[in-house]
Amino acid sequence: MSAVEYETVIGLEIHVQLATVTKMFCGCTLSFGDPPNTHTCPVCLGLPGALPVTNAEAIHYGLMMGMALGSELAPRSIFHRKNYFYPDSPKAYQISQYDEPLCLGGRLGDVRIHRVHLEEDAAKLVHIGASGRLHASDASVVDFNRCGTPLAEIVTEPDLRDATAAAEWLRMLRATLRSLGVSDVNMEEGSLRCDANISIRPVGNSELGTKTELKNMNSFRFIERGIRAEVARQTAIVREGGRVEQETLHFDPRTEAITSLRSKEEAHDYRYFPEPDLTPVAITQAMLDRAAAALPELPLARAERFERDLGLSPDAAHLLAFRTELGDYFEAAVAADGAQPQPLANWVSNELVPRIGADADPAESKVEPAALAKLVSMIDANAVTGAGARQVLDKLVAEGGDPAAIVEAEGLGAVGGADSLGPVVEAALAANPDVAEKLRGGDMKPIGVIVGYVMKETRGRADGKEITKLVRQQLGL
Ligand code: ADP
Ligand code: MG
Ligand code: ZN
User: Is 197 in the pocket of ligand 1 (CB under 6 A)?
Assistant: First the structure.
């Protein structure tokens, strides 16, 4: 008897806070980190009689997103009331879109988009009292600044097959949204939030298994770990002959524990009905033209251009195109100097990024794009070795400045040519007679000892190929 193999199926629901100036249905400004309850009005506080008005800029951003994802843009869409009570939602309903959303279908990479709709965010509950147990003095208070923030909800088809792919795809979506400029897409601050719907099924089955929903994961790492933990949980249940129950779950990244928040709600639980206080959204040609004109080059297209026009490897092109700020920096460097794009790309991703931190924006570092380009050109021209250039870059990261001046001031220029390097190679061979003997006998393996000696003597300023050439010359090989 062979054990049944299971396949994972994942669909994502992503909430994106839109970076409009004002809220979705009122004139309050959006804020992050301002004192609580300083951006409120009768509409977003849900006071009786207050009337919402749809934010045209949010519709504009929604259209840009739909275009970027290749969705069909509904000529007419409407808002619904989604009724439920929660202390962060004073109206006891959320204005959302139901069966007539703004954008239908689409695709990003290998994943099909089911729909994109607009809605409003809830307020923020802040739990006071860090005791961990409930005390009479503990309380939850509400900050309404976030209430009514425009949200776009992007729903994918269940096309993802594992945790890594889900996180990878989400990175791609984030880069796309960032390049559109429609959101800050900051997961820690909650402007990008992701729910993962997860099921398993025997490999070869085309029917979907019962899914659970992991709510509100706020980092790429947690998403991967959360999905893995949930797949393990479901697999264990099924292998023991049990059945997965459809429910909404919370993943605690600290303990890896998965706990049930609620059994799955159905659409009819929400008593959706059309929002009577809002007019339908009717898309005009002018609105479509404006959204199309606002579209930037999207990351996928940019990656293709980097490969096609600049000859970058697919990996390098992808990395730079999907990290918008790295791509912008790289392009500025390419424009500044005649450095070769591929080595420049390598220096951006392998040398600069580790020095400034994986998530830092290089534009905010002290290293001007033109300075990095010049440094890479200097390596190409043998004016400085790779090892020397790394020292120059250390200095540039710390203080900024001009690489040629640093090379000059620090004496980091390449030591090349038989005149300056020859005596050092000679000394290296003299200091290691046994190695010299082996080399003479045709065993080139220990040449590293000589190269290491010369590099040490020249503080990394010699070129490895040049050293090898001189060794061969001096030994008459
Ligand atoms: P619901 O009505 O429960 O909200 P939807 O059909 O709207 O479910 O789908 C919500 C999300 O769950 C979508 O991203 C969809 O791709 C995903 N999904 C649906 N069924 C499954 C399943 N069996 N396994 C994994 N993901 C699923
Ligand atoms: Mg749903
Ligand atoms: Zn308001």
Answer: yes
